Structures are given as C-alpha cells and as structure tokens.
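Researcher: Quick one. two chains, 536 residues in total.
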Amino acid sequence: MIEIKDVYFTFPSGVEALKGVSLSIRDGEFVAIMGQNGAGKTTLVKHFNGLLKPTKGEVTVDGVNTRKTSVAKLARNVGFVFQNPDHQLFCESVEEEIAFGLRNFGFDENLTKKRVDWALNLLELMQYRQSSPFLLSGGERKRVALASVLAWDPKTVVLDEPTIGQDHQQKEKLRQFIIQLNSQGKTVVVVTHDVEFVAESNPRVVLMTGGKIVADGVAETILTNEALVTTASIVPPQITQIFLRLTDLGLPTNVIDVYQARNVLHKYLEDRHK
Amino acid sequence: MSIFSGFQFRRVSTPIHNLDPRIKFIFVIAIFAVAIMFIELPVLLLLFFLQIPIVLLAKVQREWIRSMRGAAFLAAIIFATNFVFSYIYGGYRFTPSLLESAIALTFRFVVLVESFSVFFLTTSPDHLGLALEQSRVPYEFCFAFTTAVRFVPVLAEEAQTIMDAQKARGLELEKGNFMKRIRNYIPILIPLIVSAIRRSLELAEAMESRAWGAIKKRTNLYELKMRRGDYILLILTMVLLVVAVYIRLYVPIPSITSLLKL
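Model:
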C-alpha cells in the first residue's frame, strides 16, 4: 500500500514539480501514470522508494513514512526499473548484474544463485548469463535491467517508460509479462505516455499535468475523454479516435482496443442487416 | 554533485557577465598567481574577500555558495593533512602558528576554487570558445574545450540519475569503511564513463554528418571587443599583480598570531 498525502516537491533549482498530489495505490493494483513530458510523473514515482522526499506532505509505504527510513530499506519492497538500462549496468556479466541487488539486500550466496537462475529464466536471458551486458542489444539490456530488479522479488515494481526503444513484438511481450506479474499479485506501476500500450492493458490510469493529478480512473473512461486527455497533451488511442468521429452512427465512444472495436462493429453490422 | 552546479553558467546580463572573457581569464590567472605567491593568511583572506563584491555584482551568490560548499570537503582534507603532518614533523607540539599555516593553505585552495567558480559562473561557453579562437588557438581545440565545458552539467545530471538507479537496487554509498566506500562508487563510475564514451562517439558522427571541418577558414558572427569595463579590470589586475610582487619582495607580512600576540 502506497499512500501519498498532499505532496509538494520542489527541486533545488527551484522548479516546482509536484503541487499537491494525493494518491493511494493498493496492493496488487496495476496503475499507469500518464502525462506529457515534465508533468511530474517520474518525480512522483521517485517518491515511492524514497529517492525523493516530499518538500511538503507525506508519503507512506506499508505504513512507513519515507522520510524516516533509507532508500535501501524501501527498495527491498519497491523495485524501480529506470528508463535507460545504461544508467545501471556496470558488471562484467549479466549474471553478476542480476546478483548485484541481491547481494546489497544481504541474500546469502546460495539463495542469490537460485534467484539469479530464476530471473534469467523469467526473462529468457539464460544464454547470455556469461555475456557482458554492454554487448547486448537495447531490448536485451532492458530485460537485464528488469531481471536485476525482479530478482529480489519486490512487492511493488515501478517501471519508468518501459516501452521506449522497443519494437512492437518486444512491447507486446513486455505487456503480457507485466500483466502476468500483476496477476500473480504484484503491484505494478508503469510510467508512460504510450497510449496504445495502456489501452491494450486497461489498467487504472492516473493522468498528470503540471505537477497535479487531473484524473484517476479506469483506462476506458479516461482515454476516451478527448477533452480531458488533450489537457495532458495526450491523444486518445487510434481506435478511440475512429469511434469519436463515428458518433453520428450511434456507436459507443468508450472503445479503446481492437478486440472491443471488433465486437462493437460486428454487432452494429449485424443489427443493420436485420 | 553540488560542486558542479557551482560552476554552471546561467545566462543573465550583469556588468561581470558582459566583461571580455579574455580579461576575466587574465584576472583569474592573476588571482591564481598571487595565491600561489603568498602563504600568509592575511593576504589569502584578503584575496578571498576581494572576490565577494564581484560575486555580488554578478548576482551569482547562490551558485557561489553552492560551489564553496562543494569545495568544503576537499578543503577539510587539505586542512587536516597539513595540520596533522606539520604537527607530527613539528615534534608533536601544538602552536597557534601551526593552526594558522594549515588554515592559510586551506584558504589558498578555497581562493583558487572561488576564482574559477566566478569565472565559469559568469562566462558563457560560447564566449569562452570565442575568446580561445580569437587568441589564435586552433579551432579543433577550441571546439573540444567548449564541448567539454558544455557537457559538464549534462554529465552531472546523468551521474545523479545513475546514483538514483543504483540506490534503487539497494546500493548504500555511505556504508562501510573507507575502502568500501570508495568501491561503492564503481557502480556509478562505470555507467557514467560508458555513457560518456557512447555520447562522444554519437556526437562525432552527428558532427561529421553535418560536415564539420569541411572549410578550413572559419569566420565568426560575433567579434569580441574590449570596452571600458574591460580596460578598467585589466588595469586593476595589473596593479594587483605589481603590488603583490612588490609586497612579496620588500614588505614582510605579519602573521595573525603575531598580531594577536599569542
């Protein structure tokens, strides 16, 4: 349970990145935090594991105030995968890279080995276990970064822009993977401005703009509200855009993915034939 | 990373910002030279306070304080080593003059950081490049230099991100003994160096695809011109140097301990 109460955050440079944000994320939820560049998305999620402490207001993770504990303690429960894997890879082999976090958290050698194997399997990295992370492709590096966090099995996983620089197939795999993690009971928080990605996963959406939360609800209602998403410089999914322009046919507008669209259109055509 | 932001240029217009960078650089070198010439605390303190009006005039107090704070750690090390070793070599006897000379050496360092900080805080990288070019330094070197200066804040920001990323993986920088603490920085330095190298290769490719160096003779849109303020600063600098050399050669400087009759 992550609880954020009226949080303000100002950077040392004087930029006010969060202006009174309140949000609570229950265990096992799947949340997408959306908004344009500079809306405060990353700043907000950096409060979840104490990397940033609120200037004003309070953040509690499982009842613990983030001001009163260390990042290392919070990180054990809140895993954070950064946008750019190159910001964290430094070991000689993929294996070592994954073991790094485990050793920091004091796992013994035996358990570390087991967890590394588990994570390598999970992200299909077994054949690269001895390779240098620097020689892998962009997508593979991203998977190593993800594996290195999932290895210690944090209760919550925060992913910052996981879809950037991934081809369509990788993205789809990643989406399936995230949904699988979530269905196994992990709390998943994704920071993204990839609407199609969000539309297809249908999580709870938190929409931010100018350091404030402007909407919070299911993807289906938020992403199909054109006026609302435009204020956050987001365009509705392409499928939704079609339906928003077909209102004269009496079709519903709260359609966000292909599967749903197919059903709606199928029913419409069937009704017309009758 | 606060020491970096203490050198980061911000575009504003003040009498100090508008000075000719060449003259400003001569001034910094003069301060540097004078600080090296003297080991007496009163002179070094004078040099330290001499620069404060410049800081105020350039309205960079906040950044300046940050750079001073960044330098504090190294200054403390300089103070401690000087004090401890002169204490040991002095036969384990404490005298106030021992303390004074350690403080003086620390202030010598602080004065150097201060002058360079003021220079970089008030001189845009573009002006710096222009100054080098018009001093007939080959363009390749000027470009390399200005690029390096320009990338310092970028690297500082990146270092912060990397630090966050590793902290999120349970790295505790302040944990362990001295050697362990140094080793704690490996997970930060390697990604930083790797990404700096990647960035430089990308930059080189981008520049070459935009025909960098295609024409040997370049012209500049702006020319640096000396104005009244520049001449005044130049004269003041010369006076400072001459007076400093004169004092060094002919005037004995009392130490603060002797003034206080300790």
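Chain B has a mean pLDDT of 87.
Researcher: Thanks, that's what I needed.
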